[in-house]
Amino acid sequence: MITNNGNSWEVVSNNWALQVPYIREREYNGFRQASEKEHLSIFPVHAVRRDFPILSERLNGKQLIWLDNAATTQKPACVIQRLDHFYHHENSNVHRGAHTLAARATDAFEEARKTVCQFLHAASSKEIIFVRGTTEAVNLVAQTYGKQSVGEGDEVLISHLEHHANIVPWQLLCRETGGSLRVIPVDETGQVDLAEYGKLLNKRTRLVSLSHVSNALGTVVPIREMIGMAHAFGAKVFVDGAQAVSHLTVDVRELDCDFYAFSGHKIYGPTGIGILYVKSEILKDLPPYQGGGNMIADVTFENTSYQDPPSRFEAGTGNIADAAGLGAALDYVSAIGLKWIFSYEHRLMEYATEALKTIPGLCLIGTAEQKTSILSFVMKNVTNEAVGKALNEEGIAVRTGHHCAQPILRRFGLEGTIRPSIAFYNTVKEIDEMTRVLKKIRRNQ
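Given the sequence above, the corresponding structure tokens read:
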């Protein structure tokens, strides 16, 4: 957890404690008391930036401007130090060791699970499964609940917005079971068409799998309403929260989703660690996904019995260090407050949107009213690759390509876009610098 000692914030977990001087109390209180219109100017972004060592990196002689946050976020010092502390003082396998380091590692692992439970407002930490990332979470659900529930003639619904990771596992499942994959269309702004969604739902709908936020466009899907509509037909709902958790407060009980997943590296945590939340009433009846150590109760050559969840779904040695690092990342953003993070990022996105509109021949893709801080665009007569290269030469990192979301880009007649994506350590000055380079590209075109 993170507590305030009066001068800075202190992260305390198990046997380690780290000073995190990212927001002084005076700055933090000032921001909390400000009006939303003031958030862009008053958010203590420069104090936050001091916590991210990589932001002082220079590329091509230029100060790094990291605007590729939808691909992965940078890591605060407290996360890096948490990993360092684990390997210096706690490194061991978990659960079965009779020695001190095993107890420390187990405490770190299970404390991280509790942190995730609190972050998602789940009912119990037993509903939290550690996975490698959102992709593994989708595959786990497809191969367990999906195989249990989807048969010949049954239907799985996804939206046109989905990342490939929330398309391909359902295609594989439907081909194996004889089910059908149906697609919810989006309108010209890139928002889900709720009327068409309602028409697709029927008594054969077994599962609806949706991105909470589009990774290609930044669209925030009306997820609570869509979950309620699916439940009215008896369907379960999986939510891909990879692009949502770093921007939006998520309460899985309020949403009433059946499954929710996210990746640690999208929310300032390590790579290779992710989370799958499953409602306990569903989880208790799911079969194992993989077999091996750690998930068994007893093994003979004739038969095997399995541990209760969540251990049943965590075969082999878990990613213990990165789970602890994820816990530190969630503590970090929770101490600042996702409400304040979203407000600052949203204002910065609005500023960036208006700046991009001043560039001739630049076309924004995805203009839904409800968006997080992802901008997607193309420039007339300039390839995406050329734009990305020119920005990189100035130290500005953005993503170009199809963003593992080819169907939604093709919905707009495109094979790729340029995608700057904003985090709470980005600044107005960085947006101005990106705009300057884009205008230079246009002048030189």
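The CA atoms of residues 8 and 24 lie 6 Å apart. Try to locate this feature in the token string yourself.
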